From TrEMBL:
The lineage of its organism: Eukaryota, Metazoa, Spiralia, Lophotrochozoa, Brachiopoda. This is Cytochrome P450 26A1. One of its GO terms (biological process) is sterol metabolic process. Pfam families: p450 (PF00067). Its cofactor is heme. Keywords: Heme, Iron, Metal-binding, Monooxygenase, Oxidoreductase. The gene is LOC106175945. Belongs to the cytochrome P450 family. Heme binds at C449. It comes from Lingula anatina (Brachiopod). One of its GO terms (molecular function) is iron ion binding.
Length: 508
């Protein structure tokens, strides 16, 4: 008996010592001695694993930390010392300091999965800016106008599929439907049969399963499956590239990528990769290689399908809670003559010009993305010790800029926890400038999202068609939300859908 007690006491003492040394190490040895500032408040948890278990198990992990420490605090999660910041002042300092103070820091296995030539979202150095220009070319400007009728068509047919089902788990359905929509818009409308589309979707699900997991490439493990998924997706995108004659513009992202050009200094990385076409270009430019087109198309597909599904689900949630907002949207559609006179349910063909006139719908999207930003926060590695709010964040640490907590708690938004699209209606350009870093659902600074215009247009069209075509009741109007991989309701948001009835047929 005595042996058991001695053993238990020894384990407890050893454990206590290990924790004390762990905390001491972080408080005293990790600090940058050249900077005369303390580390931010906060706790580093257990030796080696830090507070990772708490993060995984406690849904309100970050909320509790914010309540206790405010806008800046330290912790240790996912194998790294981390400082989390939630005020616009700190967030803007970090995001504007890209490449000087901080840089994007993504685990090696994710970088490899994202592409052989280097995905834009993990790329650093001189290749990043020219490739980002290519993304902008493909996802905004003239291309947006071309995407508009296709977006309306795919959104409408997807909603009609929801209406057939009636009782649905919104997030699950939207993930599937939005993946199909994104693939049609980005990879091409008729390039793949339904069965092929299904295989691409399954491959993408396997791929995304590896984004927040252990990095082991062992058969059966997520990273191994993700590699398999990535190969499948590459083979289909390769097929789409091959089926695209140089001169034909199919109006999808692949066609635009094949026409895009990069400066010559952005040399291809893989020797055996080939340039995609030989059309004459200015001497200092070159076409993207086949592999670069593949990587860019795959990245657009993943980014679009994952974040917009979250935003669409939040639109269903918030408009489900606020019938009065649906009525106002319908009124705006009526004012602009967009509801077809014959039935009051179908929407006229939309164009980018028509969409820019719908100010209230734009405010609704903005408010949804403020209150429920799909990407809750962004990660950066500190390149040189950062000084923020009287604290130091040592070189090598990770900084998380929380978008969600900042947008929800910012003092500049009156009743910031409430859904109120009107708050955006009368914001002057001057105020808009001041609010630049208070509301950043698409990030900010050097790495701001190049797909934001594409996403905003898709979300606008989704909102218009949803409100015009559908009625819905939420089974659980106040679901618990999970933050990873993007913000989503834990119960997938069960709801009962029915077609919206024309007011002409039912004047009562
Ligand atoms: C509602 C939808 C979307 C949201 C909320 C969103 C949000 C974001 C955020 C917050 C970032 C910055 C990440 C960082 O700073 O580390 C980002 C980057 C990025 N997004 Fe989006 N995004 C959306 C849709 C899209 C779409 C539709 C595409 C492409 C089709 C896209 C492609 C990208 C890419 C390639 C980057 C990396 C940019 C870089 O590192 O320079 N996103 N997005």
């Amino acid at each position: 008996m005595i042996e058991i007690v001695i053993c238990a006491v020894s384990v407890a003492v050893a454990w206590w010592l290990a924790r004390a040394m762990w905390s001491y190490y972080y408080l005293n040895c990790m600090k940058d001695e050249k900077v005369d500032l303390p580390l931010p408040p906060g706790t580093m948890g257990l030796p080696f694993i830090g507070e990772t278990m708490d993060l995984a198990m406690k849904k309100d992990f970050w909320e509790k930390k914010y309540e206790k420490y405010g806008n800046i605090y330290k912790t240790h999660v996912l194998g790294s010392p981390v400082v989390r910041v939630t005020s616009s002042e700190f967030v803007s300092t970090v995001l504007r300091g890209e490449n000087t103070l901080v840089k994007i820091g993504v685990p090696r296995h994710i970088e490899e999965l994202l592409g052989d030539c280097g995905a834009l979202s993990v790329m650093t150095g001189p290749k990043h800016t020219p490739l980002k220009q290519v993304f902008y070319q493909v996802l905004s400007g003239i291309s947006l106008g071309e995407f508009c009728p296709r977006m309306q068509e795919v959104v409408r047919s997807n909603l009609d599929m929801l209406l057939v089902k009636k009782n649905i788990a919104v997030y699950e359905e939207i993930k599937t439907l939005n993946f199909q929509a994104s693939s049609k818009l980005l990879l091409g409308e008729d390039r793949f049969a339904a069965s092929e589309m299904d295989k691409i979707r399954q491959a993408a699900v396997e791929f995304m399963g590896a984004l927040f997991t252990v990095p082991w490439n062992i058969p059966g493990f997520p990273v191994w499956k993700a590699r398999r998924g990535r190969q499948t997706i590459n083979s289909y995108i390769g097929k789409a590239i091959d089926s695209n004659s140089n001169d034909i513009d199919n109006g999808d992202a692949i066609s635009h990528l094949l026409k895009a050009a990069l400066p010559l200094h952005c040399r291809r990385l893989t020797k055996d990769d080939i340039y995609t076409n030989s059309t004459e270009l200015q001497p200092e430019y070159r076409r993207l290689t086949r592999m670069e087109v593949m990587d860019a198309a795959a990245e657009m597909l993943f980014m679009s399908s994952i974040s917009t599904s979250s935003a669409m689900t939040s639109i269903v949630l918030l408009l489900g809670q606020h019938q009065e907002v649906r009525e106002k949207i319908l009124a705006e559609l009526g004012e602009h003559g967009l509801l077809m006179a014959k039935d009051d349910v179908n929407i006229q063909p939309l164009t980018t010009e028509k969409l820019t006139k719908l100010k209230y719908v734009q405010c609704v999207i903005k408010e949804v993305l403020r209150l429920k930003p799909p990407v809750g926060g962004v990660f950066r590695k500190v390149l040189q010790t950062l000084e923020l709010g009287g604290y130091q964040i040592p070189r090598g640490w990770t900084v998380i800029c929380s978008i969600k907590d900042m947008q929800e708690n910012s003092q500049v938004f009156k009743d910031g926890q409430n859904f109120n699209p009107e708050r955006w209606l009368h914001v002057s350009p001057e105020e808009s400038k001041q609010l630049r870093f208070e509301n950043i659902p698409f990030g900010g600074g050097h790495r701001v999202c190049p797909g934001r215009k594409f996403a905003q247009q898709l979300l606008q069209i989704f909102t218009i068609e949803l409100v015009a075509r559908c009625n819905w009741e939420l089974t659980n109007p106040n679901p618990t939300m999970a933050r990873l991989p993007v913000l989503h309701p834990v119960d997938s948001l069960p709801a009962v859908f029915s077609p919206r009835r024309s007011r002409h047929n039912h004047p009562d």
